[in-house]
């Protein structure tokens, strides 16, 4: 592994907790170069909702490559893109009565967010954006300015401006009414709040510590935006594509955001793809006003299309995600109750789950113990104090139970040291 | 094609000039869904230096996918990444005595630029960056702030600050000494120029109009940066990977930039990959201070590695690129001389070539005529007044001659209308 | 008055409500060019705490001018400045055990604020500042960025950044604990709040609507700043010099801010003068790093010195201000109770007093009625909904009672229309 | 003088070179507390064009104060303000056919500049402003952002943005055509220059080093602004009121700027007063959108009016200023020629004059020698390398000759050391 320390920048992070060299992967399993298998409860930080190298998608991908389907085509029309758009309309947007146009903003989630912010500002003529405490939206300058983590913000090297953080749901544990401060600032012409172009929000904050906003909070936020003529940007990069159950994480709240950001699992196979969905009346771009080299990699369209066909033609995946999520929830409740002195908190919805520990050190130790037992898990939250689970939605019951057992053991090992 | 106009945002651009649906591709040829072939002199805006679906890379890619090699692994260690790093060191960095560490900044060129700007600011504690007239560095907020095009800048929706443009080489046609203004501003403590953290520059501006900086200008810029303790960021996203002949576009100038941005063709096959190369003393990141989901897609590592092995083990590609470039140059000189009244200007170096017309309308008409004759070409420059050629470096002589013939005809057709 | 509408910009404001041409003034009386007298309950928006053309100061001023004392001397040493500094130390700083150094930041309150912000940022190396809802700190770009009023902010023409508003005392009528949100944001490293260099606050917001912060809130704020290593800037431009009773508006709260801004009445006679008082350890300026032409007009030093001697050698003025303030308070309570249907709210402390009406229209009408009855009063608050009293501290009882009577009549006239 | 070092901030500057305590002043003479006289060739950095305590103005001032004329009146209508406006129209604007409306932006020059920038941005909807190398416009955040001096800029504590410096006249000693770079950037839509709302310029840079722009350069700049629809802001704070001969420094260039900033000597007597003159079509302010406590101190109106009447009813002052300026110029030429090895450069126009030395150290030594001989002079320029003369316009010939003699001696003393 010498070449990594010699040649790769110190900015590398995940490899520090998992110091092995991975080679192959299948479903929920990653294998290192010596053939040792690891159960993956991280799933590409939410980019692998359908598991590693999902066989159905894999075949479509190999077929496409083998027949010399166009790989790279900027934003030209291609058969693969057409298939994807038609399938997206048929399987996702149509059935949910979501009237969106699709921007291909670039290869990753940060591009989806940058395009969303640009467009919201262009449409409204305002610069300011409201974000939320512990939000994570990406590492490019625009996306970083609406991200909460102070270490990551500090890396910007310029003051991050044009964003004002508001308290996310349950930030004060119900101690004061939702949006009390936010709405008061909006209504008070002397508040000093720059009038916002948009609000950007995650329905469940993954990096921020598996904070699941209540559905009524999301509905309240959507209503507030409508009342005050503020565009609502829903960043579904990590929580979309079924992570919390329904395809979009906001569906159960009964809202229709003005702009939706998708990436990570939308490509299906882990290949870079991102979408910014916008209400038709917001489609005021000039041709080429936002562009980029990797807007719509065709192999990713192929696997994305196949994933929508296989998993979103019915509600089986959604139901199984909800069920598995509840199973994790009940195990986590047991773990919490088994360690009353540790003040653990079980968090999450669907298959985005976590346990909050008293410190980042504890949560990190649990993940290290799990790694020793062959399970990959990461921490999140401002101080890394939340043990985070983002397993593949396609995980089977045996794997799930095995992972939960390892988690139970690891928590015990750490808390009873 | 109805689904495109119904569902895809008006921001789409290339599809407007080439209103067909592409399906397959091989080498320098793209085929539409009816099987009609187009000779591609655009090559993914420089992302396909080795041609579409290059057979050598294709087999490695299919093999990797077939054997369930890890696809998505964030910045974990993988066998595919190790192979890539070792090959990069062996074939590229080592032989050129370039002592760089590698940052995987995210999937695209804008990520490479954002990481470069962040790091330069962090290292120096200064915010300001010098860019050049007609620069293009990407569409995310940080990259856009150092990009010249006013339409694209206007899309930002916030004032783009922290960047000051300086005249690129030949901006005044030799009418005043290189760097006269820039260096004077640096030396004058009353100049009002914010002290710059870095200069960001392309050795040849592609989007800016195929403006090739003289090698002595690049050397002069590098010297100036050293004298004034300014970091030099060389954006080789479009012009690297052999586009102008040598692997890096700056090699012939005999300089070693502090930071180099690579993307587009580094992945070899058109899959998203980007690198930010940094001098070891600049490697001051905290782990995870810059991160992202798609930092290092393993299938792209596989094709990237294979491309380095196949094309950069010797200097054949470099020599053939130089030779083909000169061939284009001499044909372009003939075209220029054949239309003395049109004041055409032949531009470029290596296989980044262009002809400047009196207006964007004329250049656009030439591209339209070429499309009708089965050739794909785009315009660039602030007003789209430059007909731009970025053919695959692997183009064969017959294709090259055919394309040049079409260009000659198309220019004639437009200028003699 | 034609010359005014012809030659003076539309930005003029006070002259719109009081469309007469004033000529002479004495104590609490202003006289128009026809000799008609107006009782002045506005007192130069707090710049005339000692009344118009106070005889004691007037004589000193005329003497100084008559003997050709230096008028303008930039920041050179002068006898008048020395007298002022010695008197400030002897009468104000020394007795209060306030260890401050004096910056002469320019002629007005905005200069005092600009210097305070600059210094706080220089000392801490941070850009961000916390301000409060409905704050008013001035109209230059730095001061405006921490000011709340949206109309005034809109005039900036550039986005106002580097400031985040927090709720001022009683913003939620006690519905949630003081500083709950602010302190939570500071403690949460994922909150997205840029780490603040300083907090800037008024102990009583005049322009913001005569909002008097509770003393325990001010103490709490000071403690919070100390806990979090944030500099506390107390803007006493309008509320200092005895307006609320003690010389500094923050004295009763038992706090010692890091930086204090003074202007308006510090000159005594209405001549421009401003001070920024800074703790000695903050005095890190380079000579001339902040400068200006009108830093310390000597005639203003003369009247300022005289005012300190005459009014601050004992506590008579302070006691009478408190007493007069209470008299106004009790009259206002009666007014409030006399109009229960109008939901009036009596506000203020010392001789900064107000009555809040249901709308700006109502408050404006009361002021117009008062003007018709020979009393000058203005409105404040985000919608101008607060009738504001800032009478000279030297007002005599007869004048005070006469003014209060007019106010009572005016309120009745408006509310019983 | 102990109280100064104990109580006054280290930011004090002029007092460092002239460590005496001044008491009285008359005309061109300043007297310290021991009665020692100093010939003042600095004149309040241009605030005392009519000399210290000018007798004509003094009498009007004392009369006004004695009769209890209103002192402080915010922006209310007063007799003193009406007199001033009428006189300004009659003596200055009318005869020069300048159709301006008057904004009273606050007490000092920086306020005049802040108001100008605000208005230019509001009118155009653009943020960016073009300033010039070595410009000085003031120390508040908006004014500082267009100021050149790096030490003063560094004091801001936030990045100064929204301004791009262009080369002032003769910056390259005629080596390249005027405005070559500026106009090229404006015409090139890919230049990366943010479209400017305004250009701000001094006709002669005082603080920047007594750089007198050629009249044809000013005319060219004005034409360029008109061609490109950019507002021209002429900062005449230091060079207006006759400093270079005519009332406005730009008159001889035959231009009519869109906005003119006046302060310093406009008050006549050294009392703070500032004006922003704007073309009527720019008068788009809302009432109160820009305001402030010290907009129009009435004693300053009185002295300002008297100064206009006494000195601007005919062209005597203008002619004598030109003549005295030429006298200084010819003496300076002799000095330059007497020290050929020193490479001195005589600079300036009217009574803004300077000699540039090889270093700031030399220029400072000359000023120190002059002080020892009883003459007050300061340095300017980015490194303080210019000995600067701004004598009162009312200086008599004997004083002028005496001062020039001291200068000659002082230069000799330093250069022949």
TrEMBL record, chains A, B, C, D:
One record GO biological process: ectoine biosynthetic process
Record-given protein name: Diaminobutyrate--2-oxoglutarate transaminase
First-tier enzyme category under EC: transferase
Keyword RNA-binding: no
Metabolic or biological pathway: Amine and polyamine biosynthesis; ectoine biosynthesis; L-ectoine from L-aspartate 4-semialdehyde: step 1/3
Source organism superkingdom: Bacteria
Classification lineage: Bacteria, Bacillati, Actinomycetota, Actinomycetes, Pseudonocardiales
MF term (GO), any: diaminobutyrate-pyruvate transaminase activity
NCBIfam families registered for this protein in UniProt: dat, ectoine_ectB, PRK09264.1
Family: Belongs to the class-III pyridoxal-phosphate-dependent aminotransferase family.
